[in-house]
Amino acid sequence: MSDSDPLLKYTESRWNFSVIDILEHYGWYLLILVCIIIYVYRQMRPSLDKFLKDKADREYSAHYHKNPDIAAARIAAQQTVTQRLQDKYKQDATEYQRKMEEKDAKKREEWLTRHTAPSGHKLGNGSSSNKEEQNSLRPEYNPLMGDSSRSYRPQRKSPCSGGGCGKK
User: Fold this and answer.
1) What residue ranges are annotated as transmembrane (predicted)?
2) pTM (2 d.p.)
């Protein structure tokens, strides 16, 4: 047989498929098949999970039914863990309560020191702080008179806030 034999070329090309050829010829079929598989999987998942859980429960009960000592030891271990967690919770709760009481006592003490201590200044006291304040101000400054460098200028009343109405 020679290389130009059409039967040989046909059989070689028939069995020599690439992935691209398969996708070109069967792409839509593969896509539909994947969609169907995903749909069926999502529909069957809850029942499959329930079946596996029931199976595990049956195996668990059969194992502990045969040997009740293991079941009693497991229950005792669960109770000790639960008791340990409960003790830790109570300890944390009492510690938190103690901290809150300390915080409240500190707040109460601060409030009492603020409100019972004399505060404020008497007029005409003549303390040095008043003199320092008076020296830091300009002698001609009077807060009731206003400042000569600042003056109030009202805004212009224009229909255009940007001032660009009709101006070119």
Assistant:
1) 26-42
2) 0.34
